Amino acid sequence: MSHALAVFLGGGLGALLRYGVGKWTLAWFGSGFPVGTLAVNVVGSLMIGLAIGALEGVGPTARLFFVTGLLGGFTTFSAFSLDTLTLWQRGEAATALAYVAASVVLSLAACAAGWMLTR
């Protein structure tokens, strides 16, 4: 299987899983708090940590399917978490903290800007 196909298939499955979690949490918890997004981000972060460890000796196609595709389609927050942890583990604590701050501030600003542009 090609790498691109592995990412494509995993991404489609991950997006379907995210959709399902969103529908399920909305039915169970209502719309007052974004439980679905929180659940996807936390579960995705746990899963990417497990996948990186469990898939260490596996070929690149399987890693691309699970990590880039499935978990990337499920939540990009898992990639953010892994990037931050990688920086931290390399001893780059200041860079990791700057990355967290920049990601949150710039993402919120971009979201607000996009929303305001449609008003």
From TrEMBL:
Membrane topology: Multi-pass membrane protein
Location(s), subcellular: Cell membrane
Annotated transmembrane regions: 32-52, 64-82, 94-117
Activity regulation comment: Na(+) is not transported, but it plays an essential structural role and its presence is essential for fluoride channel function.
InterPro entries for this protein: FluC
GO process terms (BP): cellular detoxification of fluoride
This protein's UniProt keywords: Cell inner membrane, Cell membrane, Ion channel, Ion transport, Membrane, Metal-binding, Sodium, Transmembrane, Transmembrane helix, Transport
One cellular component (GO) term of this entry: plasma membrane
Residues that coordinate or bind Na(+): G72, T75
Catalytic reactions on record: fluoride(in) = fluoride(out)
Function: Fluoride-specific ion channel. Important for reducing fluoride concentration in the cell, thus reducing its toxicity.
Family: Belongs to the fluoride channel Fluc/FEX (TC 1.A.43) family.
The name this protein goes by in its record: Fluoride-specific ion channel FluC
